[in-house]
């Protein structure tokens, strides 16, 4: 009896364990529309950015606002409100710890006018650049849209919800709670404190869980029948002299349904000088191709003297008898990507990445869109000679993607999956959805050269294999023109996901988390780890994170952890490894962690946040920035034959006798 009972337990246990491991590759809902809002002859755009009214819910009663119908009238009639800027994270706006660390729902509302003219013969759409993490939206008290997943846009038609030529109210409830089935994952617990109990949000990822309406809110109009989606794919002839732009247009609207065969589009491509260089008239399928002779390909920064070349694609949608319905314009960079198990090429030329992992993070506004900061960051990227960054650890603003296109900065575009563990079905579906939304949003950006499907997932776990097979294959089915990677931190021997990727990225902190302070234990370890990855999977490898926390202004000689000298030395030891690895053609890039200091949750390993920035949080260089700049330009000169700036080396001495000028000419 004892035997059979225990075997029953064992069977039950195995069954439970096995069931937990079974994950299915289910169909998921796909996104629609989402073209970046742009004005044209047929479209108007308004922003609802500005100061909104704001209420923090009681953490122990997060659904109170729904039950009490706060969305039915002005928020201020239900609760006292405070002013809150949009876009911005709400966490650091006030001086209250309770708001900074708030867990659960918050509410926003504001009033706005809609012109009378918008009510006539057109449609109106409401679009959020991103709300973290979950958003519920009402217009004039009626439900408009619901969306889950931070850092990604969502939109809905609000034509039927608006008062035209009159005042309107928009109400948003935002929930920042992260649990085991959200992307990224977190845990919520109730913990005793001095006043009773409190709700705690914990998470393993290393950045502050900023929340709120993070990016712009737009209202825009479209004609009744309009261009809902445009997808472009570009190619180059063998010698890069002829470019092709394959397009596919999706139309939304009654004219599309009723008179399907009569719709057509005229597409024209203009160069930077505004000269038309290609045009075509489509048939009713709205799918086709344009050819650009003497094309100027899109090149990354420092890989060409005219990087980031963008054409403008103008799309005019017509109904029968040349009746113009809609006009939309899109910037297009013409380039090709190809990869093998030893190399990654752009326009037929091997890429060597020199870049950063970054964060969208700033004092006061947190993760909120900040155009001034974005412009400064791109100036710093160019100053330092970087040609790439990874959008660690979530999709960045659409405005920054447009900047990257213009400046020729290559992007490894990462979805919001960080430290993923306890793989389960709901998580898999959401993870795939995050990639679907990301690819849908960013597929037309020439700057996006790779998809990163996760950062530091626990790929040693037994079901990581199936899980990442589903995630990688799904991403590939969405876009086969770009390679897939993930930034992995488990040792290559334990990893079960790499075989599903096209390019292996690995994160490692030699002399910091392992062998702290041991500068003599960096170079060989980096070489052997990179080699191990290549041996195991026979794929190109890049180092996606390395670095050391550095307190600006702390100087210690000889180098000691946290000092500026130490960061400089850690970089230098890595450079040595990278140079040895570069001789192996399969090693394709180096990414410092991090571009700038950033805020994290409170822990005893973080002094006011993560200090691994090469720049401070105020975007000023630390000592290592100057060294990195010399390396990135030296690499640019060696691998891409770029020019180096005159101020790369500071004048030191004129050694008259030998007639040598110790300046950039020595490079
Ligand atoms: C990592 C993570 C990154 C952290 C970094 C660190 O491996 O990918 O999010 O911030 O280490 O500094 O610990």
UniProtKB/TrEMBL annotation:
<keyword id="KW-0325">Glycoprotein</keyword>
<dbReference type="InterPro" id="IPR023232">
    <property type="entry name" value="Glyco_hydro_2_AS"/>
</dbReference>
<dbReference type="InterPro" id="IPR006101">
    <property type="entry name" value="Glyco_hydro_2"/>
</dbReference>
<dbReference type="InterPro" id="IPR013783">
    <property type="entry name" value="Ig-like_fold"/>
</dbReference>
<dbReference type="InterPro" id="IPR006104">
    <property type="entry name" value="Glyco_hydro_2_N"/>
</dbReference>
<dbReference type="InterPro" id="IPR036156">
    <property type="entry name" value="Beta-gal/glucu_dom_sf"/>
</dbReference>
<keyword id="KW-0458">Lysosome</keyword>
<keyword id="KW-0378">Hydrolase</keyword>
<dbReference type="InterPro" id="IPR008979">
    <property type="entry name" value="Galactose-bd-like_sf"/>
</dbReference>
<dbReference type="Pfam" id="PF00703">
    <property type="entry name" value="Glyco_hydro_2"/>
</dbReference>
<dbReference type="InterPro" id="IPR006102">
    <property type="entry name" value="Ig-like_GH2"/>
</dbReference>
<dbReference type="Pfam" id="PF02837">
    <property type="entry name" value="Glyco_hydro_2_N"/>
</dbReference>
<dbReference type="GO" id="GO:0019391">
    <property type="term" value="P:glucuronoside catabolic process"/>
</dbReference>
<feature type="domain" description="Glycoside hydrolase family 2 immunoglobulin-like beta-sandwich">
    <location>
        <begin position="225"/>
        <end position="335"/>
    </location>
</feature>
<comment type="subunit">
    <text>Homotetramer.</text>
</comment>
<dbReference type="GO" id="GO:0005764">
    <property type="term" value="C:lysosome"/>
</dbReference>
<dbReference type="GO" id="GO:0004566">
    <property type="term" value="F:beta-glucuronidase activity"/>
</dbReference>
<feature type="domain" description="Glycoside hydrolase family 2 catalytic">
    <location>
        <begin position="340"/>
        <end position="633"/>
    </location>
</feature>
<dbReference type="InterPro" id="IPR006103">
    <property type="entry name" value="Glyco_hydro_2_cat"/>
</dbReference>
<dbReference type="GO" id="GO:0005615">
    <property type="term" value="C:extracellular space"/>
</dbReference>
<comment type="function">
    <text>Plays an important role in the degradation of dermatan and keratan sulfates.</text>
</comment>
<comment type="similarity">
    <text>Belongs to the glycosyl hydrolase 2 family.</text>
</comment>
<dbReference type="InterPro" id="IPR023230">
    <property type="entry name" value="Glyco_hydro_2_CS"/>
</dbReference>
<dbReference type="Pfam" id="PF02836">
    <property type="entry name" value="Glyco_hydro_2_C"/>
</dbReference>
<keyword id="KW-0732">Signal</keyword>
<protein>
    <recommendedName>
        <fullName>Beta-glucuronidase</fullName>
        <ecNumber>3.2.1.31</ecNumber>
    </recommendedName>
</protein>
<feature type="domain" description="Glycosyl hydrolases family 2 sugar binding">
    <location>
        <begin position="46"/>
        <end position="223"/>
    </location>
</feature>
<feature type="signal peptide">
    <location>
        <begin position="1"/>
        <end position="20"/>
    </location>
</feature>
<dbReference type="InterPro" id="IPR017853">
    <property type="entry name" value="GH"/>
</dbReference>
<dbReference type="GO" id="GO:0005975">
    <property type="term" value="P:carbohydrate metabolic process"/>
</dbReference>
<keyword id="KW-0326">Glycosidase</keyword>
<dbReference type="GO" id="GO:0030246">
    <property type="term" value="F:carbohydrate binding"/>
</dbReference>
